[in-house]
Structure of Peptidyl-tRNA hydrolase:
Amino acid sequence: MVWLVIGLGNPGPEYAATRHNVGQMVVDELAKRYKVKWSSHKSRNDVAAFKIGVGENAQSVIIAKSKSYMNETGGPAKALASFYKVEPDHIIALHDELDIAYSTIRSKLAGGDNGHNGLKSMTSAFGSADYFRVRLGIGRPMGSQDPADFVLKAFSVAEKKTLPEFIDRGCDVVESLITNGLEETQSRFNS
């Protein structure tokens, strides 16, 4: 069985370092961790493949990042899942989460989109919300800043100091979900 891990975000260098792209930062780090190169796929995604584990217990993993904007991410995700014959219960969406503190990570199966346009687009395309989510906390903006502007800004100087560890932990959560399941992953990482 293949796992599909989708890092949500917006394409292009102007968005690469923004809070909204933290999911793509995690899949980029997974590509480095497993020493795999990105290639373009006809589904309008960049993809890379690797295995976690060895022997008959090894899990095949496809990591992906859409070439579409966040609110159009569902179509490319669905096309990729169809191509690799991956059901929603083997899909992990990595996304920024305003409602949890910066660098906090929570994983779950299914649920609402909580106003997140990437999740809304995926749920609509799949006709189901029954996929895994790795919620990467970015916190809420201070004062009266519009959350829509906040997510499109780069991390603060203070946040950048711990960003590598946060991204690394995001990779650990993905690996744990695939190899150990949701319950064990939540007990280890949903602090």
Observations:
- The helical segments are 22-33, 74-84, 117-126, 147-150, 157-180, 182-189.
- The chain has one domain: 2-189.
- The beta strands are 2-7, 39-41, 45-52, 59-66, 91-97, 105-109, 132-137.
